[in-house]
Amino acid sequence: MSLFYDPEAPGDPPMPEKLRKPAEPQDELPLRTGRVHIPARQRGMDLTAIGHLALHLPHGLASTAVVFALSCLVGIVTGLAWWVPLGCWALSGVLVFSRPCERLLARWLLRLRYPAPEEERKLRPVWREVAGRAGVDANGYQLWVEESEEINALAAAGHIVSVTSHSLATLTPAQLGGVLAHELGHHTRGHAWASLLSLWYALPARLTRRLVLWLASRVERPSGSAAVLSAVVAGVVLLVLATATYGLIFLPLATPYLVAAVSRRAELRADEHAAGLGFAAHLLAVLHAEHHRQQTRRTTPDAVMVRLLDSRPDVHTRMHRLQAHLDRGRR
């Protein structure tokens, strides 16, 4: 779950005046000690996490079928009971969230590194304050740094929280706190672990799909009459399946758009979490500055379908919601 995204297209409507110049929050972040950890707030699952898991359920079922077929094949060759490899795969999702596996994920897949001593001195106190305000144990998460010239952050797996080196170099402690609070929201609301779990259990089905497509590309093209006959048979089968399932067979076609919509909602929920911890003004300032810096990068507006597949909400929506939170606090 990443914090930032590409800026809006030039063709979008202009930003309202009250969002163009947000109130400048204080740069200093008051650090507190003796915070009480509230176990009920450390881990949870909101509707966006549940929706993400539900949308990936068909992929999980397809992966189960693939692993079951492979388990039966292994059983025939080796004499091993089919449920042993299938059960190992079913339980493998727990190992993905172990600290050694998460360190491998951070280093080799996400390309993260441990903070340098000077980065640790800036990052650790801010993180402890954010975790203290949320009522969670700061030591329950691993802090990482990504080498990047962008202002960004990431929440992944069950315990990974990272920020870019540019964020550490340019953001004030309070602004850094807003960025970290957003990523902590992804963890405490279940977005990060639900995303990894969905990806892990969908992997066998996706690999099988790629293998089938590769094999299909190696097959010689049929003659004209054979191609027409194949198309007619495929159309009849598709019509029968659509009639028998009341059109539910076409639901996977909408899954990418539904997943993107759920991901956009998750980003807004993480913003709400940061605002609830008192970082609305600081996160609003970061969003405004980064949007202004990147605004000239895009020269053509996004197509509608591209926006529907975008997993991050547009900057106007995020800033409007943060500004509304501040306005409610002033009343």
The percent of residues in helical segments reads 55-70%
> If you compute it from the alpha carbons, what radius of gyration comes out, rounded to the nearest whole angstrom?
24 Å
Class from helix and strand fractions: mainly alpha
From the N-terminal CA to the C-terminal CA, the straight-line distance is: 33 Å
Main β-sheet, in a few words? 3 strands, mixed
Q: Could you spell the SSE succession in H and E letters?
A: HHHHHHHEEEHHHHHHHH
Describe the protein.
The protein has 331 residues and is mainly alpha-helical. The protein contains 15 helices and 3 strands. The chain has helices at residues 17-20, 39-42, 47-55, 57-78, 83-96, 99-109, 117-134, 165-170, 173-188, 191-218, 224-244, 251-276, 280-294, 304-308, 315-330; strands spanning 142-146, 153-156, 160-164. The protein has a 3-stranded mixed beta sheet. The longest helix has 28 residues, at 191-218. The radius of gyration is 24 Å and the shape is globular. It starts with 16 loop residues before the first helix and ends with a helix. 28% of the residues are buried. The model is unreliable at 5-14 and 16-20 (pLDDT under 50).
Summarize the structure.
With 331 residues, the protein is mainly alpha-helical.
Set down the secondary structure blueprint.
Layout: H1 17-20, H2 39-42, H3 47-55, H4 57-78, H5 83-96, H6 99-109, H7 117-134, E1 142-146, E2 153-156, E3 160-164, H8 165-170, H9 173-188, H10 191-218, H11 224-244, H12 251-276, H13 280-294, H14 304-308, H15 315-330
Parallel strand pairs: 1-3
Antiparallel strand pairs: 2-3
